[in-house]
Amino acid sequence: MSKKPPAPPQTEKRVFKPSREFSKKARIGSLQQYRELWEESVKRPDKFWAREASELVWDTKWSKVLEWKEPFAKWFVGGKLNVSENCLDRHLGTPRQNKAAILWEGEPGEKRALTYQQLHREVCRFANVLKSHKVKKGDRIIIYMPMVPEAAIAMLACARIGAIHSVVFGGFSAEAIRDRINDSQAVLVITCDGGYRRGSVVGLKRNVDDALKEGVETIRNVIVYKRTGQDVTMQAGRDLWWHEEVEKVDAHCPSTPLDSEHPLFILYTSGSTGKPKGILHTTGGYMTGAYTTCKYVFDLRDEDVYWCTADIGWVTGHSYLVYGPLACGATSLMYEGAPNWPENDRFWKIIEDYRVTIFYTAPTAIRAFIRWGDECIKKHNLSSLRLLGTVGEPISPDAWNWYHSVIGGGNCPIVDTWWQTETGSIMITTLPGAASTKPGSAGLPFFGVDAAIVDDDGNEVPANTGGKLVIRQPWPSMLRNIHGDKARYKKTYWGDIKGMYLAGDGARRDKDGYFWIEGRIDDVLNVAGHRIGTNEVESALGSHPAVAEAAVVGRPDELKGQAVVCFVTLKMDITATPQLREDLRKHVRHVIGPVATPDDIRFADALPKTRSGKIIRRLLKQIASGGVVSGDTSTLEDLSILAKLGSSED
């Protein structure tokens, strides 16, 4: 292990305790209660997870909670259940039957509300449409749709009959769709004519047509939901209109009992080789993980209006927009468009209009909100909020404090959640009624999560020492495999350190047991023998009052091994100057130490991002090293940004 890195920046030294009022009503109301349950969950996981899983509806109870033959797990062995039944049918005949399951707002402003009873009927009808086109248990289905309720209906319909869905983010290209169809051997695509994004219409059906032009042999049908009304080409014998098909079937479709280990979905995530990895999740364990984390982490109650802003194409949309909230009987809000359309206050208007109580979004969105200024927020009443959450990447202390004070009014706990597509559900967080929060820290392990920071040999390192984040025992919602590639699964996640799941993130754990995520191991720089997480430098830059957002990468350096290169976006009305550049260098040096002083700071109007808001650091690394930008740029929201980033310092 290399030298101990400098402590990451923490501009906020305070620790925020949960309010007595919140703790009194919370499901987990004290640190002692959390610790007792966590101890049970890691020392007697069979007992803990059997109790949690028993809250779901099972057609056949399991004979064994866990069968573990490293690195392959089977949870709730012999049990049978259906995810769609657990999200819908279980609420029928109860007071939740006429409660809103999904509240939806389209970018142009349309509004819909689907009660649990109505959603159940629509899911049954579409499940019958799938069956009428000979879709059977085990078939793979591609879902390529915008954020409309029909996307959730399609997912739940697949789950109802045992078809395996693979949702493809609506910002992906025709080539990406084709790759996922061929890897999964999908038989059917569900899409829309188009979707709305910042006032423009995105041609989703056109992308599907392009994907199917050549090199695809397995697709029998394409079902198209009419969203925008734009002209599209409908191929006779293959393409079908959603609205016409549902008129041909009835609304009675019993759910199919499925083995607990029956695949529920394949979700593709980027891989280091450039070939997407098809992460495979199964039924019983995933449903238990999504349900349990949703219940405890968000402290969900029947009266909540819960809004997870993630796109349905990402795992956060799966677990915390659809499956987790609906299994809990919550009201889940879904919004189709961009947060700054037609104005920068769109999110705050939605929160005020629907009286949202729980708001779960990404740090990249929070940084954009900061840059847009507080004036658009002050126009709206956000007093309905009682809990805030973040997901997707580490949040800097500076952004955390802004989120807490400006959006939460200083009254809302923040759950900063660390997890992955592969983990299926939240792994590290603070339970809002039980544990204090530290701005910038992901918090404590969730129930059943035996997390640790280890060196290259698997030895646990001392407190406040950087290392690799690992999980040392299986958990219910863990991925079961990479679709069609067991060898890659074993090598990628279990091949580095025997007996441990390697998350791929660098982190440290402080003396109180709180985890601080440093970023991907690939993004931990080695500067003159010191390990420096790019997130550490980004947080330091973000704590400067002039900075809206920063991305940090390394470039080869003959003397130091790696040099620190920073791409910085300034807040509105701040002018980039050589003096400001020098001030930022000094600021990073002061917050972290001399070893982290940036070698190169480049000011940018914007950073290269996907439509979901993820910064594409791969491209920044190529630019920082003076190389030619290569690889897939089809998911980049604004290609013109790349041309503006190439120039170095004045």
Blueprint of the fold:
Elements: H1 20-25, H2 31-43, H3 45-53, E1 64-69, E2 72-77, E3 80-81, H4 83-87, E4 100-105, E5 111-115, H5 116-132, E6 140-144, H6 149-161, E7 164-167, H7 174-184, E8 188-192, E9 195-197, E10 200-202, H8 204-211, E11 221-225, E12 239-241, H9 242-246, E13 258-259, E14 263-269, E15 277-282, H10 284-297, E16 305-308, H11 315-327, E17 331-335, H12 346-354, E18 358-361, H13 363-372, H14 375-378, E19 387-390, H15 397-407, E20 414-416, E21 428-429, E22 444-445, E23 451-454, E24 467-471, E25 481-482, H16 486-494, E26 501-509, E27 515-520, E28 524-527, E29 530-533, H17 534-542, E30 547-557, E31 561-570, H18 578-591, E32 600-603, H19 617-624, H20 640-645
Parallel strand pairs: 4-17, 6-7, 6-8, 8-11, 11-12, 16-17, 16-18, 18-19, 19-20, 31-32
Antiparallel strand pairs: 1-2, 3-13, 4-5, 9-10, 14-15, 15-25, 21-22, 23-24, 24-26, 26-27, 28-29, 30-31
Descriptors for this entry?
Rossmann fold; alpha/beta; GMP Synthetase, Chain A, domain 3; 23% strand; 650 residues; 5-stranded parallel sheet; 32 strands; 7-stranded mixed sheet
